[in-house]
């Protein structure tokens, strides 16, 4: 969330896992994982997929579930702030074309969310960075994004009108992501416990985020060096894909976004592979969301004068020479192509009497459940993707 009468930087208003659960009463709860088959997650990246998700007796397209989650988040923040947002920005993968963006626009309009700008994720990350550090025209930034279930590498360039252009982008397919690293840590612990050992994946995920010299999981001590040795091939694969995405571009900085980048081994490996600064916020899973909020502010107020570089003493230490500290800003997105969904093809279609959209019925029974929003986030609800 960005305040129009306050600082240019964004603040975190609410953090909730992207889970939608259909209850026995026929209502939806948000943010809690329930019975398998009745809970949907990971649907935001399936927008435009013709195969719907099955929730017990219901089947719902991914864009409808995504729109419902966005509607719920807006409602929670409105309840806290006491007013409607002037504008909403939603981040999306850089590979999305007009069809997927149009599908999400239509689903958002169906649930009553109209003033929306869609922002590619690497643009949002770059805009968040530009809040804190001056990015001159024609300079380039690289974005290394590693979340729970997705990896991507992007290069963006600052244009003369202070927006960002996409130079190159690679979407990971066979790369390990945050959830895979949790499984590798669990397997390392299980190998010490024996075949009958029980390991909590949630405990492994928490330990991975805050790895000190060693961690104890299910009574087994795992040193950081042991874990890094276990995941080294996966990290090398990620870094080699990232360097191929850079090509001949020499970026001014590499921005680490996504909760998977909390692992210091990621920053260390990138620092050894590139000849520039490697930067990350203390909570990199929030960087894209904060950049999207700054983009929404720019849509309403327009661009402002370039800020002077901000000195900061907040440092996130790595064991090697990587420079990692909070980053931020965002340029005015070029949303001319986002003003309306793609035009229909010039074909004659016989009119049909369509049934009422199910999403309106689903939206009417969407009820918050579990933790209510507050003035700060709770780390146990943080999702590494930050989406």
CATH fourth-tier homologous superfamily of the largest domain: ATPase, nucleotide binding domain
- The gyration radius over C-alpha positions equals 21 Å
Strand order of the largest sheet: 10-9-8-13-14
Oligomer: single chain
- Fraction in beta strands: 15-25%
Query: How many β-strand runs?
Result: 14
Question: Which architecture of the largest domain does the CATH hierarchy give at level 2?
Answer: 2-Layer Sandwich
Weakly predicted, low-confidence segments:
311-339, 369-381
Q: Helical percent range? A: 25-40%
How many domains, as an integer?
2
Largest sheet: 5 strands, mixed
Mean of residue pLDDT values: 81
First-to-last CA distance = 14 Å
Shape: globular
CATH class descriptor of the largest domain: Alpha Beta
Number of continuous helical runs: 9
At the fold tier of CATH, the topology name of the largest domain is: Nucleotidyltransferase, domain 5
* Class computed from helices, strands and strand pairing: alpha/beta
H-E order: EEEEEHEHEHEEEHHEEHEHEHH
Pfam family, one: DUF7159
Keywords: ATP-binding, Chaperone, Nucleotide-binding
Protein name: DUF7159 domain-containing protein
InterPro entries: ATPase_NBD (IPR043129), DUF7159 (IPR055583), Hsp_70_fam (IPR013126)
């Amino acid at each position: 969330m960005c305040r129009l009468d306050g600082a240019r930087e964004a603040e975190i208003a609410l953090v909730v896992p992207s889970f939608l659960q259909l209850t026995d009463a026929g209502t939806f709860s948000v943010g809690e994982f329930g019975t398998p088959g009745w809970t949907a997650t990971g649907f935001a990246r399936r927008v435009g997929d013709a195969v719907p998700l099955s929730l017990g007796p219901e089947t719902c397209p991914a864009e409808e579930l995504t729109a419902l989650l966005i509607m719920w988040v807006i409602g929670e923040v409105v309840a806290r702030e006491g007013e409607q947002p002037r504008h909403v920005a939603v981040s999306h993968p850089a590979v999305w074309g007009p069809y997927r963006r149009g599908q999400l626009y239509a689903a958002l309009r169906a649930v009553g969310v109209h003033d929306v700008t869609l922002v590619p994720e690497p643009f949002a990350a770059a805009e968040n960075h530009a809040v804190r550090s001056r990015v001159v025209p024609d300079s380039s930034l690289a974005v290394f994004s590693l979340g729970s279930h997705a990896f991507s590498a992007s290069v963006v360039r600052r244009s003369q009108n202070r927006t960002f252009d996409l130079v190159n982008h690679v979407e990971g397919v066979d790369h390990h992501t945050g959830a895979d690293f949790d499984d590798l840590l669990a397997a390392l612990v299980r190998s010490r416990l024996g075949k009958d050992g029980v390991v909590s994946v949630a405990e492994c995920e928490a330990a991975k985020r805050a790895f000190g010299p060693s961690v104890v999981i299910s009574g087994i001590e795992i040193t950081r060096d042991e874990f890094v040795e276990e995941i080294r091939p996966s990290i090398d694969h990620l870094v080699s894909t990232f360097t191929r995405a850079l090509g001949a571009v020499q970026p001014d900085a590499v921005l680490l976004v996504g909760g998977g980048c909390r692992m210091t081994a990621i920053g260390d490996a990138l620092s050894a592979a590139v000849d520039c600064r490697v930067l990350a916020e203390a909570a990199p899973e929030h960087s894209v969301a904060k950049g999207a909020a700054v983009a929404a502010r720019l849509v309403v107020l327009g661009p402002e004068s370039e800020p002077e570089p901000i000195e900061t003493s907040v440092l996130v230490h790595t064991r090697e020479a990587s420079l990692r500290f909070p980053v931020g800003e965002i340029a005015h997105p070029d949303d001319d192509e986002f003003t309306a969904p793609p035009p229909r093809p010039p074909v004659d279609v016989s009119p049909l009497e369509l049934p009422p959209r199910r999403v309106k019925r689903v939206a009417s029974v969407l009820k918050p459940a579990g933790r209510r929003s507050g003035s700060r986030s709770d780390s146990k609800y943080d999702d590494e993707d930050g989406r």
